[in-house]
Every structure is written in structure tokens, then in C-alpha cells.
Write a structure and sequence with these properties.
The chain is an alpha+beta fold and 393 residues long. The protein contains 10 helices and 9 strands. Helix 3 runs antiparallel to helix 4 and helix 6 packs antiparallel against helix 7. The structure holds 3-thiaglutaryl-CoA (TGC) and flavin-adenine dinucleotide. The site of 3-thiaglutaryl-CoA has 27 residues, from helix 4, helix 6 and helix 10.
């Protein structure tokens, strides 16, 4: 049966007609194009790149950026709903769109020149070009301020040296947003962003092998060895660690919605299975233990929906804070992890098969729990907000 959503508190009544239309359009696209193939892609460890042109045509990438650059110009709630529906299909599909929109197009829009915007945004929006975001390094994950990738000024541009690790879409990308230290190592204020074409001499990308999570996503290591870029590669309005962190706020916002999508997919599967699987002469959904699982899932999803929607309204009003985003990313990814695990268990042995969704989502969400700031890091961001005392320094 096609997915009908999870809406116990009539959230639909809080959405505009346009927001509902966007949500329904993405939902249908995911149902017809992602669900039928994603289990196989996952087993094969393959990102379904063939979906990208259509994703571009339908406006999924950078959907909250202005129309003048080829984007859909939607509000942030509609943008969030796109993320929710994509992640209902698979976290890898949402990841692709998140990175393209929030981590590549957003920095170009926010920190780049008008030439950068005109050159890259329409092609990235349509999916003609693919981008990636290089912040994390082998020895600097949660603490990107310590990065050792450097960009040194030359007579006619910049020389970039370093390595970036765990980069989504890294091997497919035409362009990489590379964050590098232009000053002394450790001086977070010296960090700046560069628009680096991936065919630049000295730039290589290597597939990250052996992933047991996000298998339908391209994850790579980037190596930059004396990569020479022009003066124009620098995004002039980037300055300090704050710039990449601003990008992360955009992507984390989308993930807060995405987590709901994964959780809703699992809940839907759990409800359906519980009504159909007969054991001890009755459907397992008739046993109190399974009902408790379902009740907990529905409660957490409903709370998470209210959280995401209000966060979106705050973002649209221009008052959303990064700490509010941390709370939502932390909460909604955690509830997705719980929903996926409980669904997997409710399904018994079938729950380990790729033809069901729960275990794929369960494994995916482990990455989502770690990237874009681990659950622990968001706990500490909230701790700092509450007490005024930083646990980081
Ligand atoms: P700290 O001193 O706290 O901050 C430096 C400056 O930045 C400001 N700031 C933010 N601004 C906007 N948005 C945010 N989220 C911000 N967080 C901080 C802050 O106000 C300060 O401004 P100023 O004016 O004083 O300079 O920096 P810190 O070095 O102590 O680090 C804090 C910490 C640990 C929270 C931060 O480094 C952090 O968030 N670490 C986690 C790293 C992370 O999330 N990496 C993600 C990599 S990308 C990724 O995972 C993509 S996966 C995508 C996918 O496939 O979907
Ligand atoms: P570490 O920072 O080494 O953390 C290890 C453990 O220590 C964690 O449990 C963490 O919570 C804990 N820890 C760290 N610091 C503290 C502290 N101060 N207090 C308490 N506990 C602490 N990065 C990009 O730049 N671009 C991408 O496109 C991208 N895509 C990714 C895709 C995937 C599939 C994955 C898994 C990661 C991706 N990342 C990307 C990297 C991701 O952002 C990092 O993995 C993440 O920031 C955590 O860094 P780390 O893995 O080095 O963990």
C-alpha cells in the first residue's frame, strides 16, 4: 500500500496549500522512484545517480534558495518537508540533496561572488553538476577548528594542501567546497572557503570502502596535493570557522526533518506488519508488548513533527538559532534511531532483510547520528546554551 504519512495531530492543518502540495509531490516521487530500487542499491553499495536529473527538474536541490539562480525559491517549511520525504526513501538520497543544497549551494550563495553564484547555482540546482563539502579531516572531526589543510597565497591564486575525510558525493563531484586554514594552524579565524573544481591538478577522490551504513551514498576521501586555484576560487565573504558552521546549521535543519521521514517509514512498516503477522493465533499487533512499541513510536514522531514545524516557522521568520537546530537534530535523529530499532525487532527475522526497510534505516541512522555534529556534540552545544559554560575549551 502506498505511504500515506503519519499525522496523528492533524499537522496538515498547520501547513499551507503550497507546503502540502510540495510534500505530496516528493512523497509520490519517492514512492515511485526510490522505494522500488533502494533495497537493491543498498545491497550493491551504489548511489542511484540516475535519479539526480529528475531530482533537479523537480527542484529538490537548494529548494529554499532564490528562483533567479534556478532554484525553487520555497520557504523553509517546504524545504524541510522535501528532506522528510527524501529520507523516508533513504538517508542516502536525503544526504545527497542536503549536501548539494545546504553545503554546496548555500555557501556559494552566502559567501561567494555574483560570478560564483551565476556559474554554479543553476547547474547545481538542475543536477547537471554535483558538489561536495570538505570540512572533516582524518584527525579533525568534531573539532574542525583544528584543521591542518592549508591554503597559501601565491602570486596569482592559492595553493591548497591537505586531506578531507568522509566526504559525501566526493567521488562524483564536479566541484568541492574546501575549507582550509589561510593563517596559523589552530587559529579558527583563518579558516576560509574555496570553490575548487575537482578536475584541478593534484585533486584526487577515493571511495570509502567497507561502509555498513549509508550504503546507497557516495562517501570519499579527498586528497589535495599542491592544488593550485585562481584568486577567484576564494569565497570572499567566508571568514573563520563560523562560515562552515553556518552551512552546517542549514544542513542540520534539514536533517531534523529527515529523521522524521526515516522514523515514519519504519512506523508505517511496523503498523502494517503488526496487523498482518499472525502468531499464537492472532496478529502480533494484538499483543500489548507490540502495541507499546507502536504507541511509543507514534508519540515520539508526533512530538518531533511539532518540533520541526515550529523550527521551520522560526527559520522563515529569521529568528531561528543554531542551538534550536541542535536540539531538533539531536532529538529527531535519536527518535529515528529508536523507531528503526524497534521496528526491526517487531519484524522478527524478516526485519533483517533488505526487502523490508527497518534495518536499512537503522544502519543509515547510525551515520546521521554521527555526522553534522554527533549526538554528543549537540548535547554539549545545548549544555553551553543552558549554563553559559563551554565544555569544549
Ligand atoms: P565556537 O567558538 O563555538 O564557534 C566559532 C564561531 O562560530 C559561531 N558558531 C556558529 N555559527 C553558525 N552556526 C553554528 N552552528 C555555529 N556554531 C558556532 C560561534 O558563535 C563563533 O562565532 P564568533 O563570531 O565568536 O567567531 O567553535 P568551537 O571550535 O568551540 O567548536 C564548537 C563545535 C564543537 C560546536 C563545532 O566545532 C561543531 O559543531 N563541531 C561538529 C563538527 C561537524 O558538525 N561537522 C560536520 C561536517 S559536514 C557533515 O557531516 C556532512 S554530512 C552531510 C550529509 O551527508 O547529509
Ligand atoms: P570524533 O570527533 O573522533 O568523535 C568520536 C567520538 O568522540 C564520538 O562519539 C564523539 O561524540 C565523541 N567526542 C568528540 N568530541 C567530544 C567532546 N568534546 N566531548 C565528548 N565526546 C566527544 N564531513 C564533511 O566534512 N563532509 C561530508 O560530506 C561528510 N559526510 C559524511 C558522511 C558519512 C556517511 C559520515 C559517517 C560522516 C560524514 N562526515 C562528513 C564527517 C562527520 O561530520 C564526522 O564523522 C563527525 O563530525 C564526527 O567526527 P569523527 O567521525 O572524526 O568523530
Amino acid at each position: 500500500m502506498p505511504f500515506e504519512g503519519v499525522d496523528f495531530y492533524d499537522m496538515d492543518s498547520l501547513l499551507s496549500e503550497e507546503e502540502r502540495a510540495v510534500r505530496d509531490m516528493v512523497r509520490e516521487w519517492v514512492e515511485d522512484n526510490v522505494i522500488p530500487i533502494i533495497g537493491e542499491c543498498y545491497v550493491e553499495g551504489r548511489f542511484p545517480r540516475e535519479l539526480v536529473p529528475k531530482m533537479g527538474e523537480l527542484g529538490f536541490m537548494g529548494a529554499n534558495l532564490p528562483e533567479e539562480y534556478g532554484c525553487a525559491g520555497l520557504n523553509n517549511v517546504a524545504y524541510g518537508l522535501i528532506n522528510q520525504e527524501l529520507e523516508r526513501g533513504d538517508s542516502g538520497i536525503r544526504s545527497f540533496a542536503s549536501v548539494q543544497g545546504s553545503l554546496v549551494m548555500y555557501p556559494i550563495f552566502e559567501f561567494g561572488t555574483e560570478e560564483h553564484r551565476k556559474e554554479w547555482l543553476p547547474k547545481l540546482a538542475s543536477g547537471e553538476k554535483i558538489g561536495c563539502f570538505g570540512l572533516t579531516e582524518p584527525d579533525f572531526g568534531s573539532n574542525p577548528g583544528g584543521m591542518i589543510t592549508t591554503a597559501r597565497k601565491t602570486d596569482d591564486g592559492w595553493l591548497i594542501n591537505g586531506a578531507k575525510m568522509w566526504i559525501t558525493s566526493g567521488s562524483m563531484a564536479d566541484v568541492a567546497i574546501i575549507w582550509a586554514q589561510t593563517g596559523e594552524i589552530g587559529d579558527a579565524k583563518g579558516i576560509r572557503g574555496f570553490v575548487v573544481p575537482t578536475d584541478a591538478r593534484g585533486f584526487t577522490a577515493k571511495d570509502q570502502k567497507g561502509k555498513l551504513s549509508l550504503r546507497a551514498s557516495d562517501t570519499s576521501e579527498l586528497v589535495l596535493e599542491d592544488v593550485h586555484v585562481s584568486e577567484e576560487a576564494l569565497m570572499p565573504k567566508s571568514g573563520g570557522l563560523k562560515s562552515p558552521l553556518k552551512c552546517l546549521t542549514q544542513a542540520r535543519y534539514g536533517i531534523a526533518w529527515g529523521g522524521l521521514g526515516a522514523a515514519m517509514a519504519c512506523y508505517d512498516e511496523a503498523v502494517s506488519y503488526s496487523k498482518n503477522r499472525v502468531m499464537f493465533d492472532k496478529p502480533i499487533g494484538g499483543f500489548q508488548l507490540q502495541q507499546a512499541r507502536l504507541a511509543d513510536m507514534l508519540t515520539e514522531i508526533t512530538k518531533g513533527q511539532l518540533l520541526a514545524l515550529q523550527l521551520g516557522r522560526l527559520k522563515d521568520a529569521g529568528t531561528m538559532t543554531p542551538q534550536q537546530v541542535s536540539l531538533a537534530k539531536r532529538n529527531n535523529v535519536n527518535l529515528a534511531a529508536e523507531a528503526a530499532r524497534e521496528t526491526r525487532r517487531l519484524l522478527g527475522a524478516n526485519g533483517i532483510l533488505a526487502e523490508y526497510q527497518a534495518m536499512r534505516h537503522m544502519a543509515n541512522i547510525e551515520s546521521v547520528y554521527t555526522y553534522e555534529g554527533t549526538h554528543d556534540i549537540h548535547t554539549l552545544i545545548l549544555g553551553q546554551e543552558i549554563t553559559g559554560i563551554s565544555a569544549f575549551s
